[in-house]
Amino acid sequence: MVVAGAGSGIGKSLLDVLSKKNYRSIGLSRRGEAIEGELVTGTNYHCDLRNEEAIQAVFKKIGYIDTLYITLGDGVFQPIHSLSLSEWNAHLELNLTAPFLLLKNAYKYLVNSKTPMVVILSSTAGRQGFPHSSAYCTTKHGVAGLAKAIREEWKPTIRVVTVYPGAIYTSIWDGRKGFNPEDMIPERDFAEQMSLLLDTPEAINIDEMYILPRKGVL
């Protein structure tokens, strides 16, 4: 299985959890190790997930994909009038175009596996709006819509799960005032919950999951 966005945060924790549960898992991110020789399970390898040729090359090297976790993404939090076009475009490229490229190129591997599943992380910002988050909300609504479309396109062969997490304590919150890390879900706890999707009975598809801290939407 592949964890896209395993260089930090949720993806990094998820790759570690899967590895410790003895799942054959490979991480991909811009922060990963260079690919040399045979791939080693539990390792995060370098891949620019905005580059289709890079994705195609690493998927060919992996050769078999039964589960794809798409956990990558970043946040831009500022008023829309101060958001530059270059910031907007860069945000869409990482948070929305990269998932599209991953899904497009993973299809031929997923469809040939026995119990294929895709897990896509959106956000509470993919269900509602937040101030100073126009770019982030746009991409998270967009990736949720992408997941809904391919769920209909790929069923019943490939299960597609959209996860809408609330506040998970990762570096995305660094420097943001008014939020207490103790009110958030530890990223390790969230990763453990994501790994449990692999235990879903074959006859069941979980279309969407809405996971919040105990205080709700922060």
Sheet with most strands: strand arrangement: 3-2-1-4-5-6-9
Main CATH class: Alpha Beta
CATH topology: Rossmann fold
What is the CATH architecture descriptor?
Answer: 3-Layer(aba) Sandwich
Low-confidence stretches: none
Average predicted confidence as pLDDT? 92
Q: What structural class should be given to the helix and strand makeup?
A: alpha/beta
Strand percentage, roughly? 15-25%
Name the CATH superfamily assignment: NAD(P)-binding Rossmann-like Domain
Proportion of residues in helical segments: 25-40%
How many domain regions?
1
Give the CA-based shape. globular
Largest sheet: 7 strands, parallel
Rg, Å, rounded: 17 Å
> What sequence of helices (H) and strands (E) makes up the elements?
EHEEHEHEHEEEHE
- The first-to-last residue Cα distance is 32 Å
- The total count of strands amounts to 9
By DSSP (H or I, 4+ residues per run), the number of helices equals: 5
